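Lecture 7 notes: from sequence to structure.
We start with the chain below.
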Amino acid sequence: MKSRIELKVNGKTHAFDVESSTTLLDVIRNELQLTGTKEACGLGECGACTVIMDGKAVNSCLTLAVEAQGSEILTIEGLGQGGELDPLQNAFVKHGAVHCGFCTPGMILAARALLDEKPNPSDKEIRLAISGNLCRCTGYVQIVDAIKAAAAKEAAT
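Predicted structure tokens for the same chain:
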């Protein structure tokens, strides 16, 4: 049996008929063709599927689509404004925090949720916020530096 859900994804409202077992990740990737949200472990362990739902970073592989009914979802494709990259995206590039790129969308969205809640986080708070996002290419130093730089830039504007 399918349920009708409505989601606001990257500022646009969409309606879907979904099975009760359909994940938010499936809707984002398969129905909306937004492939920046990655499918990796399927267990909520790696963070590659991280999106922002109603202001909070969530693992879309663990979130059922019906649980997201009426929610506002932000994916990496919706992060920049007017063709410009988000300050976090720019900082990741500038600080060499993008390597293979597989974890980058989820990492940036976890960081965005943090900065939206706490504009001037400590290193410890940054590391805690991204602790659910695994990166196999870096030692996380460049990622933390990028998040701190984006926070400083946003505070200055």
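Points to note: The chain has a mean pLDDT of 96. The first strand starts at residue 2 and ends at 9.
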